Amino acid sequence: MEVWPDYMPRWEVGYSSAYKNAVVRSSIPGKTTQRRVSYRNSEIVSASLVLSSTEKAIFEHFVQDLLNDGADWFLGHVFNSGVVEDGNVRFVSGAYSAAPLSTFLWKISANIEIKRA
């Protein structure tokens, strides 16, 4: 598993989150059953980074080349309510967006899934 580089900024997490359901419900007619898929729920949150142009190039290399276009998990550091937390992180659907803030600064936004370590 790849590790988020220490020299890169930490992800800042938004205030809203959704929890991925760890229960599967049967679709067979009649008596409905449910079963647990996992004992570890993951949390999906909106997150952002502010990066320089150089850091953006490193970020794109990390996501595209090391994380299989954002499909793979990585060990990351997430800044949540003033506390830095470590956890397994991946991009939801491998997607992120990049918007220029100025000539040399970029805001990266993504929905990320976090499994607490």
Structural features, described:
With 117 residues, the chain is mainly β. The chain has one domain. The chain has one helix at 53-66, and strands at residues 2-3, 11-19, 23-25, 34-36, 43-52, 74-80, 83-91, 97-100, 105-116. A five-stranded mixed beta barrel has the order 2-5-9-7-6. Strands 3-4 form a two-stranded antiparallel ribbon.
Summarize the structure.
This protein has 117 residues and is mainly beta.
Show the helix and strand layout.
Elements: E1 2-3, E2 11-19, E3 23-25, E4 34-36, E5 43-52, H1 53-66, E6 74-80, E7 83-91, E8 97-100, E9 105-116
Parallel strand pairs: 1-6, 2-6
Antiparallel strand pairs: 2-5, 3-4, 5-9, 6-7, 7-9, 8-9
Helix tally equals 1
Radius of gyration: 17 Å
* Helix-strand makeup class: mainly beta
What order do the SSEs take from the amino end to the carboxyl end, as H and E?
A: EEEEEHEEEE
Tell me how many strands there are.
Answer: 9
- Backbone shape: elongated
Q: How far is it from the N-terminal to the C-terminal residue, by CA? A: 13 Å
Taking the sheet with the most strands, its summary is:
5 strands, mixed, barrel
Features:
elongated; two-stranded antiparallel ribbon; 50% strand; 9 strands; single chain; 117 residues; mainly beta; 5-stranded mixed β-barrel
